[in-house]
Request: fold
Amino acid sequence: MSRCRMVFSGSGGQGVITAAIILAEAAVLWEDLVAVQSQSYGPEARGGATRTDVIISESDIHFPKANEPNVLVCLTQEAYNKFYTIIRPGGLLVTDTRYVKTQRKVDARQVELPLFQRVMEEIGKPIVLNICMLGAVVGLTRVVKPESIRKVLKDRVPPEFFDINARALELGVAMGRDAAS
Amino acid sequence: MSRCRMVFSGSGGQGVITAAIILAEAAVLWEDLVAVQSQSYGPEARGGATRTDVIISESDIHFPKANEPNVLVCLTQEAYNKFYTIIRPGGLLVTDTRYVKTQRKVDARQVELPLFQRVMEEIGKPIVLNICMLGAVVGLTRVVKPESIRKVLKDRVPPEFFDINARALELGVAMGRDAAS
Reply:
């Protein structure tokens, strides 16, 4: 991996910003990588779709916004409608099966995953959807090791919530790896 | 205010990133401004000082990193030592009295505030230091209205923690206004 530009998008409460910060920290603290993570809020932020950018690289990053991401995740239909056009040709577009029902044809690999459904079936807490999504991204792209994410969760998540976060991560990684193979 | 470039710095657990995200959201959701908020993690991130950048503007922002911030907040000595040189000449440098003991002469207005001490005396929960700091920045700079921060807290903070956050905000705003006058 020389450089991975990612955009995670969804609605305000889905925790995509937290997922992006955890990924950036994992890359930097536990793998010898550099990362930039950002939120740009313009008038469109008032619309309801949240966007967060993460760039992970082996070398210095000069511009922090992932204008044409090679990985785009959309966790709501609104986020999909707003952002699907920015995917880099040949990139990877990941959507949640329940939240994104209508997709257009894009020049990218489209992977639909039942993230929300599996989180509810196996963990029962919608709050960890973001970590399951992050696991799926890691499973699909191998941008960092799942263990690096787990270490950041261990440091950041209150002890009583670590277990459900670790399970959501594992679930997502397995789903991502299945879809990658 | 045409453009305000800010850097908040401290140690990992002090919540400076959360404070920056809340400020950016307040500016955009409640005040018709645009904002960019970012974290850059290089090899230095492994050292222990966390840095987060927020730019708030009335018009488009093209480069999201606040290279020469006009407001710099340092909540630890380590963060101070690492970042004090980046302050824009004539800017505002805010430090916490307890955590930053040794300061160099800089071409900026230096404001030392007993944020941690007052939070402990009046609220007793160190976890809201970041919101008190944010209040102080708002009180000093008037970059957004305290009420806009309060509305974001209302939406983001679990109901049982809203009260201590609102009190921390109010305390910080009062300290910032006192120091500004």
